[in-house]
Specification:
6 helices; mainly alpha; globular; 150 residues; single chain
Length: 150
């Protein structure tokens, strides 16, 4: 096909449609390889807390510049008060450290394949925990509405 300029325009709509699928498959492949490597490291006797420390430190090193420049570009100037720091600490303790610690205990007791399959249950447990703690309120009428839409 030719466009206004006379050059050939390749229709990439088919490739664009599959881009999210390819990205998700690549992410799952990387996660499976990491789970396999974690299993090998744990089998050699490395401490759970050392692995978590390395993992969280690496994530912080890579994400801090991204967050800094993103927030700087937006012009947001948030002051870190004591309550905000306490919330951040508790969120990191429960959300990252405890979750990874339990994951590593589970991967040590089972196989890497089981851990790769079971990690997909995290959103379900998060939703159930949010309902139990009262952060999310799922009403029956909303559930019925979603059933009709499906």
């Amino acid at each position: 096909m030719k466009n206004e300029r006379g050059s050939i325009n390749f229709q990439m709509s088919g490739c664009q449609k599959w881009k999210p699928v390819v990205v998700i498959l690549a992410v799952y492949f990387v996660m499976a390889v990491l789970n396999f490597l974690f299993k090998k490291i744990l089998d050699k006797g490395k401490s759970h807390l050392v692995i978590i420390t390395y993992r969280l430190t690496t994530a912080a090193i890579f994400l801090m510049p991204v967050a800094y420049f993103h927030e700087r570009r937006r012009g947001v100037n948030v002051k870190l008060t004591t309550p905000i720091l306490c919330y951040l600490f508790l969120s990191a303790l429960i959300g990252a450290t405890l979750t990874q610690y339990l994951f590593l205990i589970g991967i040590q007791c089972t196989s890497a394949a089981f851990a790769s399959a079971f990690i997909n249950m995290t959103p379900v447990f998060t939703f159930l925990l949010a309902i139990l703690l009262g952060f999310s309120q799922a009403r029956e009428c909303e559930l019925e509405k979603h059933k009709k839409d499906s």
